[in-house]
Structures are given as C-alpha cells and as structure tokens.
Amino acid sequence: MLKNIVLISLFLLSATVLIKGQAPSAKMTSEDYISAYHEWAVTNMKRTGIPASITLAQGMLESANGNSTLAREGNNHFGIKCHDDWTGKRVYHHDDKRNECFRKYQSVYDSYADHSEFLSTRSRYAFLFDLKFDDYKGWAKGLKKAGYATDPNYPQRLIKIIEDNRLYLFDAEGGDLKWRAQGNRHSSRSSDGFVVDPFRKHEVDYNNGVKYVRLKEGDSFESISREFNLRDWELPFFNDLPDNANVKEQVFLYIEAKRNRAYRDHEFHVVKEGEKMQEISQMYGVKLKKLYRLNRMTFGVEAASGDKLHLRKRVKK
Predict the structure, then answer these.
(1) CB-hemisphere CA count at 13 Å for 73?
(2) Residue whose C-alpha is closest to residue 10's, from 212, 257, 209, 194
(3) Which of 32, 38, 46, 167 could be bridged to 53 by S-S, CB 3.0 to 4.6 A?
C-alpha cells in the first residue's frame, strides 16, 4: 500500500545552478542551495529517517553552500572520506591532514544518497535513529558525539544554519510550502528539468522514494505525459504496463522509474487472492523485472495466493 507521505514541492534551481546537479558557474547563496537540494533531503528523510534539516545543514556547512573545491571537483557535499570500503572514484584534498582521500561522485544527487547510506548503515550512528523525528538539536549533537566531525563547535554551527534558514520546516508535512510562504524565493525550473506550473493539475507524491500522481477523471496517458514533459513510452515503461493499457484501470502512475527493491521497512509481501505481480510491484514502487528476479521466478508467471514474496533480498537457491 502507498505510504502516507508529505506533499512534494519540486525543488527549484536559481539561474546559477545547472540541471542534473552539476556544479554552478557562479557562487551559490544559502537560499540558492536550499532551493536546489531540499527535495533530495526530503526524499532521503522518507527513506531513512534522517531529518531533512540536518542533511541540508550538513550539506551547506561541509560544502560552503556548494562552492567548496571538494563540492565543485568531486560533487562531495558532505566531506565524506574514502574509508576502507569505498570502491568508487577518489579526489584528494587538504583537511585534517594533507592530501586526504575523499569520495568523488558522478553527481550531487549521488553525494546525497551516499550520505544517507553512510549514516543509516554504520553502527556508531545507530543511536541517532532513536531520537524524535524533529529533534534536530539532538541530531546535531549526536553527529559530533559519533565522530562525524572534529570541530568542537560542529553542533552549534549546524543548529545555527538550521534556525537561521528555518530548515526545520522541511522536517514537517508541507515544509516546502511553509518555507516559501516565509519569503524565500524560487526560480521557475526544477533541477530534474520539470518546469514548475502553478496551475499544474496533479500533486506529486512519493512512494519508496519514487514520484507518482493519483489519477483524476478525464486523465489519459497523453495528458499526464504532457503535464510532466515525458516521452510517449515513458509512462507505460515506468509502470510496467503494456502499450495498450487502459488508463481508467489505474489508480496512480509513477512519473519516473521505480526502484530495484522496496523501502527497508518492507522485506516481504504475502500474496492475496487475485493479486498480480504488476500490482505488487506498483504497491511497493519496485520494478516488475526486479521483483521477479528477487524471487527467482520466471517472468510473466503469477504468484499464487499465500506465496511470500521477497522485496529487498534475493531468494536463496
């Protein structure tokens, strides 16, 4: 089933920020940075439980609002070093020591995703996830306690950034709307290429970190594609539907590709009478082919009622 999640407002870029998270040609302000990247922070909050305010504040502090050499040359916005388990590209930068190894990312989005993965999978940060969801002060102090930074004033610096820029608004439902209502400007284009239209017909929500829209009377594949600037083939492809599918049989449609596995809270699904594999893949925001692969099933064969489907880890042979 679809999770109850906050209303998405597309994150917007100023004229100095390029699409796809590439480094800007002119210096970004704090407002530019928040406009550009707040949606990624909110997305990762839904996936992992890390407050969006903390993610944004860390990104702003560690990358100097995206202007640092490490951010510009390595798309590294969180100062994450290589560590022994890093197998990706590297960039060397003076920090606590000369020429320390830092992770280099293909895009800023990859840096945000890796930051969430870094905090949510390392045991020394586990206690942070027991804090109240909106306890940004606890998170700021806990990050220092866990050894994220050596700066003794790190918690105070994060808290000041959060409060000066009202980043705590992003931790609550409708945070983007509240942030805008308090006098923050936005440009008219989002970083993923969507032109923001105040008269847009559909609100965009997330399931498993994937954007989707609920269908309304009179909708068609063509009208949804036009509204979100998609190619003709993309909606059927994103939703694992045949080309001749009837839009009236759909309750919602994903407007971007689904994930390879379900959200971490959903390890399994017990098939109910009449449920189809495509319906289940939609339910959890998982690509249909990946769902078959996870369960070592022949593509096109339907699961039987009562079967236990794996949603994250592949069934052992």
Answers:
(1) 10
(2) 194
(3) 167
239, exposed or middle or buried, with CB in 10 Å at 0-12, 13-18, 19+?
buried
Partners of 92 in beta bridges: 101
Q: How far apart are CA 213 and CA 230, in angstroms?
A: 13
User: What are the residue ranges of helices labelled H in 64-220?
Assistant: 69-74, 108-121, 136-145, 154-164, 175-181
What count of other Cβ atoms lies within 10 Å of the Cβ of residue 99? 8
The pTM of the full predicted model, rounded to 2 decimals, is: 0.51
User: Residue 294, class by beta-carbon neighbours within 10 Å (0-12 exposed, 13-18 middle, 19+ buried)?
Assistant: buried
Give the count of beta carbons closer than 10 Å to the beta carbon of residue 255: 22
Give dist(CA 176, CA 34) in Å, integer. Answer: 10
Per-residue pLDDT tens digits for 140-170: 999 999 998 888 889 999 999 999 999 999 8
Mean pLDDT of the chain: 81
Do 76 and 86 meet the contact criterion of CB atoms below 8 Å apart? no
* Residue 8 DSSP one-character state: B
Per cent of the chain over pLDDT 90 is 41
Q: What's the Cα-to-Cα distance from 120 to each of 103, 105, 130, 169, 224, rounded to whole Å?
A: 17, 19, 12, 22, 35
Give SS3 for 40.
helix
Strand 100-103 and strand 189-190: the pairing is unpaired
Q: How far apart are the first and last CA of the chain?
A: 29
Residue-level pLDDT at 150: 82
User: Which span out of 1-10, 16-25, 175-184 was modeled with the highest average pLDDT?
Assistant: 175-184
Please name every residue paired with 286 in a beta bridge, in sequence order, or none if there are none: 259
Q: Which of 152, 153, 151, 182 is nearest to 167 (CA)?
A: 182
